[in-house]
Each structure stands twice: as structure tokens, then as C-alpha cells.
Specification:
- By secondary structure, this protein is an alpha/beta fold.
- The chain has four domains: 8-53, Orthogonal Bundle (Arc Repressor Mutant, subunit A), CATH 1.10.10; 68-123, Arc Repressor Mutant, subunit A; 160-176 and 193-266 and 279-365 and 376-398, no CATH class; 437-488, no CATH class.
- The chain is built from 19 helices and six strands.
- Residues 24-44 bind DNA.
Length: 491
């Protein structure tokens, strides 16, 4: 076979495929070159990755595009096609950019070859051959992958350093009485589209590190966020409350920076949906894609972790509904309410339960002691099955149409509050969603009276109340205390 010249992009792509377990012989045959050439690329992988990173940084120094919105839309479309292994040539991209410009009502614009060249340089894009991926899956693919590919992928990583991340859709307002009405709703539109969110759940194999949840809503700044200085989750938004490639990349970039500060490297397992692009620039995260059409078996989060979160969440939602009925008030659930309940639900998922799900998916060694691993089956058994599974088929990501891309780009440029805020959140009572210090202290006093007079609380629970009081008091400004004593002395 003859030797051929590879671009830097092609070499990085080959390195990524080798890291994901593909064989040298398969890749060399596809490119029509000898296996020694592929071996040389693999041998020089660290040097090539550094060159790729340097090129990317240099690309950022190029002059910025005149039509930033159009360039952003073009980049989203391009990344989506690449994630689907669709080969994109210069003329195809040029035609698509003209179509996007027309949809964005940009007048007197005609995409030229030089515009494409600058676009490619700014984003380090190369037009190489992309191998197609068959949608047909061999029935033994899961066991073969676990036996022959997974051991080499995980080499050098201990169980604490292996993570899985997966998205789940939530009808966050849905109460049991509405379950049958919306059973089977996939929510690509429809009546429940405003009442849905997407949640990214991630944890390591031992369950000792549960990442802060990522919640994706529709509104950029929901009214219920007014006065909120921090959230227990990461929050992003887009017009359909879906995971997108841009949100996924932003999330992993932030995580990679965290790991850089800790000087820790991890392996992250994800499925190969369109919203999960292959990110070659990550330094501390080794991104591994599960084989196509195997996530129902190989995705640890799908083996019970997400199910447990939903059970804990819906348990809280039902208790809130009962409490509102007893207090004779209309039951309402805002995005902020959902976020708080989701955080509590995630905290209630046990590390042993998570480890058990990794084991069930086949990722733990057969010698691992699993006698103590249990899931939260008791809680799940208390929740109606239809209610628990109502949003299992909810879409969390999808191939974006040109209209979706354009709308999301335009929406991301808006600074004002999202006008699509739910009407329930516009009520005056929600203007004061965040309690004041005095309201929090009064609520704590009520809780203390309950524990000390109606319920035989444990020492640990009383200590927790004391710690909570200390935390609340620490937020009281010292100046307010001084003002109080000044007034007292005057009287």
C-alpha cells in the first residue's frame, strides 16, 4: 500500500478512534494506507494533540466574523452533522450557510470560498473522510464490547475515576391525577412542552462522587429565580429544554477545568446521541462513547439511577400536593421548586445503589463484592408504576432543524427575561419566592418545636437543626444586630 499524507484533523480523528478501541487494521484499510502509518500516528499522539491545541488557540486570534449569529448557527449545524458521521464538503457547507443566512433574514449575503476558509480556520475544521456507522447492532455486541474493548479503554483508571453521564426528561409539574391523560407523550411539542425539563445525571462507578445535576429548562431567567444568588444545580436553557451539543461541550469544558485544578484524570462514558459531539481538546476527561443502540443495556444510569431519582422526586411532589391540600392553597410548582426537589432526590440516591447499577451494566469486575449493594426498591414500590414511568420516553435531545438552530442562536443573544415564562410564575406571590432571613428563622423555630414536642428526634437530627440555625444566623448582617441593640438602649 502507498503512504498518504494526513491532515492534523484526520490524525486527531484517528487517535480518537484508536482510543475508543477500534483496531489499527480496520482504520488502515478504510484510509487505504499501511498499518505502520497508523501506528506512527498513535506513537506520536501526545505531540499531535499539543499541535492541535496550539492550532486551536491560534485560530482564536483570527479576525472575528462579521455575522456572528450566522457563524454560530453554521457551527452548530456542522457539529451536528459530524456527530452523525455525515461527510461535509466545502460546497455543501457553503450552500447550507446561504440557506441559514436566508432564514435569519440577513440581506445581501453570499457565502464565498474565502468566507468558508476563514470559518474553517477560526474553528479548526478539516474536510476529511468520515466513516459511516451502521445502525444495525449484533445481538452479542454488548458482551463482545465489554470483553474485548472495555478492558483496554479503562486501563490506567481505577473505579473511582470512571464516570457515566446520561440525560433524563422530567414532567416536573405532573401530579398522579394527570398520569393517564398524558401517558406516552414524548413531548416534542404538545401540551406538556412548557412543563418539562431535561436533567443530566453523572456519577462515578463507586458512587462516591455524584456530580452536581445539570438542569436544562426553557426560560433563560425564570421569574422564580428573582432574588436567587445561587442554585444547588447547574442551569442552562434552550427553546425546547433539550440537551444540545453546545451545552454538552460547555459542561465538559467546565468539568475539565475543575479536574485540571485537582490534577485528576477521569474516563467518562456517554451514549452517542447527536447532542454528544466528540471533543478532542479535553485534557483531563477521556470521552468514551458506548456502542450504538446499546444504551438500554450498557448505560449504568439507565439501570436504576435515574429511576431512583424520579421516585424520590415524585415522592416529594406528592407530599407537597398533600400539604397544599391540607393548607387549602392551590398547589403550584415552579422551576425553582423542581430544582430544589431534584437536588434532594439526588442526595437520597445511595452510593451503593449507583455502584450496583454499574455492576448490573457489566462494568465491575466479577470479583467485586456486591453482597452489600442495594437499590432503593422500597421507595419505588410505594410509587404508582404509571406515574413513575410517565416520562421515560421523553425526548432529551434530537437532531436540530435549521429553524431550531436559528431560533436557539437568536434566543441566546437576548438578555431580557424570557417571555415564555409560565403564567403561574407571573403571580405576585411568586415575586417573593426567596424567603427572607427572618422568615427562615421563623420556619426553623416551627421545625424545632415539632422535633422537641411531637417527634422523638435523634441526636444527629438535633445537631443538624443546630447547624442549620448557625448557618442562618451567619447570614444576618452584623450591622442589623448593632442596630437592634441601639434601639433597645434608646428605649
Amino acid at each position: 500500500m502507498s503512504r498518504r499524507q494526513f491532515t492534523l484533523d484526520e490524525k486527531i480523528g484517528i487517535i480518537g478512534r484508536l482510543e475508543n478501541g477500534e483496531k489499527n487494521s480496520v482504520i488502515s484499510k478504510e484510509f487505504g494506507t499501511c498499518s505502520s502509518t497508523i501506528s506512527t500516528i498513535w506513537k506520536n499522539r501526545d505531540k499531535l494533540k499539543n499541535m492541535f491545541q496550539t492550532t486551536s488557540l491560534n485560530a482564536k486570534r483570527l479576525r472575528t466574523a462579521q455575522h456572528k449569529d450566522l457563524e454560530e448557527a453554521a457551527l452548530v449545524w456542522f457539529k451536528q452533522q459530524r456527530s452523525l458521521n455525515v461527510p461535509i464538503s466545502g460546497p455543501i457547507l457553503q450552500t447550507k450557510i446561504d440557506q441559514l443566512a436566508e432564514k435569519m433574514k440577513i440581506e445581501n449575503f453570499k457565502c464565498s470560498a474565502s468566507w468558508i476558509q476563514r470559518f474553517r480556520q477560526r474553528h479548526n475544521i478539516g474536510f476529511g473522510k468520515i466513516s459511516g456507522e451502521s445502525s444495525a447492532v449484533n445481538t452479542d455486541i454488548c458482551s463482545n464490547w465489554l470483553a474485548n474493548v472495555w478492558p483496554s479503554l479503562r486501563a490506567g483508571y481505577c473505579d473511582d475515576e470512571i464516570y457515566n453521564a446520561d440525560e433524563a426528561g422530567f414532567f416536573f409539574k405532573l401530579t398522579p391525577d394527570k398520569t393517564l391523560r398524558f401517558k406516552g407523550e414524548n413531548c416534542s411539542g404538545g401540551k406538556l412542552s412548557k412543563d418539562r425539563i431535561t436533567v443530566l445525571v453523572a456519577a462515578n462507578m463507586t458512587g462516591t462522587d455524584k456530580r452536581k445535576l445539570l438542569v436544562i429548562g426553557k426560560s433563560k431567567s425564570p421569574r422564580c429565580f428573582k432574588g436567587v444568588s445561587s442554585l444547588p444545580v447547574f442551569y442552562e436553557n434552550n427553546t425546547k429544554a433539550w440537551m444540545t451539543s453546545a451545552i454538552f461541550e460547555k459542561t465538559l469544558n467546565y468539568w475539565d477545568d475543575e479536574l485540571r485544578c485537582k490534577k485528576k484524570k477521569i474516563l467518562l462514558l456517554v451514549d452517542n446521541c447527536p447532542a454528544h459531539p466528540s471533543l478532542q481538546h479535553l485534557k483531563f476527561i477521556k470521552l468514551v462513547f458506548l456502542p450504538a443502540n446499546t444504551t438500554a443495556v450498557l448505560q449504568p444510569m439507565d439501570q436504576g439511577v435515574i429511576r431512583n431519582i424520579k421516585a424520590h422526586y415524585r415522592n416529594q411532589l406528592v407530599l407537597k400536593m398533600i400539604e397544599d391540600i391540607e393548607n387549602q392553597i392551590e398547589s403550584k410548582v415552579t422551576v425553582l421548586d423542581a430544582i430544589i426537589m431534584l437536588d434532594k432526590a439526588w442526595r437520597n440516591v445511595t452510593s451503593t445503589g449507583i455502584a450496583n447499577c454499574f455492576r448490573h451494566a457489566g462494568f465491575c469486575d466479577v470479583t467485586t463484592d456486591t453482597t452489600q449493594l442495594q437499590t432503593d426498591s422500597g421507595l419505588i414500590n410505594n410509587i404508582d408504576e404509571d406515574y413513575l414511568q410517565i416520562d421515560d420516553d421523553l425526548i432529551t435531545s434530537e437532531i436540530q432543524t435549521d429553524e431550531d438552530i436559528v431560533n436557539n442562536v437568536i434566543a441566546s443573544q437576548q438578555v431580557e427575561l424570557d417571555n415564555d415564562t409560565d403564567i403561574d410564575e407571573l403571580d405576585d406571590e411568586f415575586e417573593k419566592t426567596v424567603p427572607s432571613i427572618s422568615e427562615a428563622r421563623a420556619a426553623l423555630r416551627t421545625l424545632e418545636r415539632f422535633y422537641y414536642t411531637k417527634y422523638e428526634g435523634t441526636d444527629a437530627e438535633r445537631k443538624a437543626l443546630s447547624l442549620l440555625e448557625t448557618s442562618i444566623n451567619s447570614n444576618t448582617k452584623q450591622s442589623s444586630i448593632k442596630d437592634y441593640f441601639k434601639k433597645l438602649n434608646k428605649n
